[in-house]
Design goal:
The chain has about 300 residues and is an alpha+beta fold. It has helices spanning about 5-10, 70-85, 105-110, 185-200, 250-255, 265-275, 305-310; strands at about 55, 60-65, 90-100, 115-120, 120-130, 140-150, 155-160, 175-180, 200-215, 220-230, 245-250, 285-290, 295-300. It starts with 6 loop residues before the first helix and ends with a helix. About 20% of the residues are buried. Mean pLDDT is about 85; it is low at about 1-45. One of its GO terms (molecular function) is metal ion binding.
Length: about 300
């Protein structure tokens, strides 16, 4: 057969008809195109049904299922599809299963697929066809967090106490913090988190530093960026869901908290704040950059002060 398919492939499914002789005329119908990836070979033979898919940019295929399907039908189509993709020299196979098609998960796993990642509306499973080492990239290994230093003209720092978490109940006043959303810039996340927790509008200044911690949430690593922001408003309207209290605290009082001096990262935060107040430290500010790879601008974080002086 064409496309590298053997007659043995047709035996994978009792529902697939045997190939028709070449001299039989093909029937013409005005009905909608057949579903589930039916293919018709150029010679007139009816090829094996396969699952609808698109090619990815790395030699693999992506199956994006949307319609309900019986698990036995799915198993037959999946085996046929894998055989054809193997003949075509494909590598990785991705199946995006909406939560409504949860009945197909067990079938895919039994055929050799494994979990890659999950989102609220779907589960992604993957399969590696070649016998060589798998090069499918793993699921995201890090989440990204921000901590915001907001200093006003009185050298007061914006601080909060949380209703839950490891800092709850110990009397520690901490910086507003949060997690960067997918597709969100660091500076946007810092501004948003401060606004959500305290009601204060801010302007982003720069990233003062960052740290990496491991074995955090479900074994993932965390990149935490310490950001400095300039307040554009002063009246606090704290978030009731997560924040117990919020206030402007004199920087000296914030720095003197006993809990701060038990943790070296917090000591460095104090030192960075002092260096900024004394204007002897320059962090990394976002600079919009364009690329032919994407239409939208993205941001490069750099020491713009020293860069501009050198140019």
């Amino acid at each position: 057969m064409h496309n590298g398919l053997s007659y043995a492939a047709l035996a994978l499914s009792p529902e697939v008809e045997a190939p028709k002789p070449l001299f039989q005329p093909m029937e013409v119908s005005a009905s909608p195109a057949p579903l589930l990836g039916d293919r018709l070979c150029q010679s007139g033979f009816e090829c094996v049904k396969i699952l609808p898919s698109t090619n990815d940019a790395h030699g693999g295929v992506i199956i994006d299922l949307k319609e309900p399907m019986d698990s036995e039908v799915f198993a037959t189509l999946l085996r046929s599809s894998l055989l054809q993709w193997k003949q075509q020299g494909k590598d990785g196979v991705w199946i995006k299963l909406p939560i409504e098609l949860v009945n197909l998960v067990e079938t895919a796993v039994k055929e050799g697929f494994w979990y890659h990642h999950a989102e609220p509306s779907y589960l992604m499973l993957v399969y590696w066809i070649p016998k060589t080492g798998c090069t499918i990239p793993p699921n995201a290994s890090h989440c990204v967090g921000v901590a915001a230093i907001v200093l006003n003209d009185k050298k007061e720092v914006l601080v909060v106490q949380e209703k839950r978490g490891r800092f709850h109940g110990i009397g520690y006043w901490k910086l507003p913090t949060g997690v960067v959303d997918a597709g969100e810039e660091l500076f946007t996340a810092a501004i948003r988190e401060v606004k959500e927790e305290t009601g204060i509008d801010t302007e982003f200044v720069e990233v003062l530093g960052f740290r990496q911690a491991h074995n955090s949430f479900f074994g993932k690593s965390v990149l935490s960026f310490l950001c400095m922001l300039r307040p554009l408003s002063l009246d606090i309207k704290k978030q009731d869901l997560e924040i117990e209290a919020a206030q402007w605290m004199p920087f000296e009082e914030f720095a003197a908290q006993p809990f701060t001096h038990k943790h070296e990262p917090f000591i460095y935060i104090i030192q960075l704040c002092l260096a900024k107040l004394e204007r002897v430290y320059t962090g990394f500010a976002p600079r919009a950059v364009s690329s032919y790879l994407k239409e939208q601008l993205n941001y490069l974080y750099l020491n713009s002060h020293d860069l501009d002086k050198s140019s």
